[in-house]
Amino acid sequence: MRSHILPKAFFMQSALVVAHELLGKFLVVSKNGKRRSSMITEIEAYDGFEDKASHAARGKTLRNAPMFQEGGIWYVYLIYGMYNMLNVVTGPRAYPAAILIRGVDGIGGPGKLTRLWGITRFYNGLPLNQSTGLWIEDRGVVIPQKLITKSPRVGVMYAGPVWAQKPYRFFICPSEINALYFKEPGAGKSA
DNA sequence: TAAGTGATCTCT
DNA sequence: GAGATCACTTAA
Fold this sequence. Notes:
The chain has 191 residues and is an alpha+beta fold. The protein has helices at 8-11, 15-22, 110-117, 160-164; strands at 4-5, 26-31, 34-47, 74-79, 83-89, 97-104, 107-108, 134-138, 148-151, 169-172. The protein is globular.
């Protein structure tokens, strides 16, 4: 087996675990008969009621409702009137948690990613699988721990000193990304 | 450094 | 209903 679609069970784990594991996995979109995929290189975790940087910090609303569902669905919302943010919901029902996909190989920036790939709120609340046309695959790439950098999350100064500074943003050092691909035919960058 | 953009949330 | 805010990007 060269690649497999990450199952719901994978996303039932805690946000920080899933966040770590998602680095090196492949985001795949299949739309209008065309398929695109790229390795996930940057993510942020938003975990629980206590996380003041999370949309769920002030309770459930119409917008953040998907975060309160069981893991394995998408949470997509519009920010600054222009940009769709793509998140994966994790953990059990009624525990709000999600991972923001901030970048893939070749595209740095969550708003750019969704714009370039045509990912909209259409996917909000839908599961990650082939039926919806947007999912995540494991293609066997393993990211050495030393290549993963942690930092505070972006754009969450409003969360106060403690939560704004939590090292919940993980990314792969960009200069190391190319070396991660398998050299065998059929694996690697091309979908 | 600041404009652009509009849904959503929190007050009236 | 009105006003503020916002997990961003781009062009200067």
